[in-house]
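Board notes (copied after class):
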Amino acid sequence: MSSTRGRKGSATARPGKDIKIRGYVTNVVSPTEFEIEDYKITRERAFVLDFDNADPELKFNLDDIRVGIELEIRGLLNEATGDLTAKSIKVDMEQFKSIK
């Protein structure tokens, strides 16, 4: 029991840890709340949406987040809860291109 209190105390003392994750969306609650594996992700009001391999023919906005899309998230992780507040979301647009 004391180890649980120790972890809780450290989580309270430290509001979060800056991390970067890359993975596939496993659940979508809304465009502002979704999950990648065990991380529950919400976004800050002032977050950055960035693209790799951008193509003028391809459009993407937050309403397009679906299960199976690969994203890179940088943000603040609350280690006690697994909540990750996204500061930036990067989308590799290559995953949406048609194979010719």
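Comment from the instructor: The two ends are 58 Å apart (CA to CA). The chain has a mean pLDDT of 84.
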